[in-house]
Structure prediction request, 362 residues.
Amino acid sequence: MGQKIFRRLLVVGLPITLGLCAWAGSSWWNSVSGPSELTVSSRANDVEDAKTIQFQIPPGTAAQTIGRNLEAAGLIRSAIAWDLWARWLQLQDSKGGFKAGNYQLSPNQPLEAIAAKIWRGQVMQRSFTIPEGWSLQQMATYFEEQGFFPATDFLAAASKINREQNPWLPADLPHLEGFLYPDTYQLNGDQITPTAVVQQMLNQFQQVALPVYQQAQNKTDLSLLQWVTLASIVEKEAVVPQERSRIAGVFTSRLRQGWTLGSDPTVEYALGIRQTADQPLTFDQVKIASPYNTYINPGLPPTPIASPGLASLKATLYPENTPYLYFVARYDGTHVFSRTLAEHEAAQAAIRKQQSRTLRSE
Prediction:
């Protein structure tokens, strides 16, 4: 009888004891870190300030090890208090557990807020934005400058064609130029890898762009690769939205007649440069021997030269029916469109003259 009572007291008393220990640990923590509640308060997200630390928890890390690592990183003051709080969480939610991943934590957060964040797996999220018209090289430079990963790692990932996961991609692609959809993305901290970024952008292309092409397949002679390639050139040429379909119409007409496209951005892509108003392409540069040089090679280059946005993709499928066969940039974002070579050369001369006057007056 007495032994049964003792065992019953032991079973009932253990949770109470652990709860009191957790309360004591929390009270001790609050005495050095400020007042808090046993449950995570609404201010938990408000205390994060500019001083944050990226904290990584590998899979399979024990709760005690997490506490010691948090203490070593200066995020909590006592691994003992962490152990008490971890036991309290386990009593409250026996099916839960601390989740592996990358976390953005602040030493100004209360211990219980940090614990709850890791318990719930609220891993760090990072966003990135890829504008329309960026090339793989521009993306790679951006990711390196933002501290995501080295540019070379991104370019390597963008050169691997995973056909099992992306069977819709055109055959014989040397890289994924043009098929990484320009948009704003968010990734969890444990997913910030070149391969994950590339796949997310491919998924977005498949969801947003590919259906546009599939719906118009019976209205266009362009293959998927040709469509994206032409759209990438339109993207690089068009600056003001109202000219996009007209530029697409000019290129479509020239392709039908078997002419060269004569697009400056294709030469810039071949050379890895970007011309400016005061440093335009030279005649020697325009003559460069490259499959991407659309001044000397008729038809389209072998791959896209950038990632086109949805507007350029649509304009390429539904180009303006225009009599124009030429256009030249005014350097203000707009273009002069011409029907004949004589008109085009006159427009070029007028723009050069105006540009010369502008440079002299500066």
Summary: The longest helix spans residues 2-33. Strands lie at 53-57, 101-105, 125-129, 184-188, 326-329, 335-338.
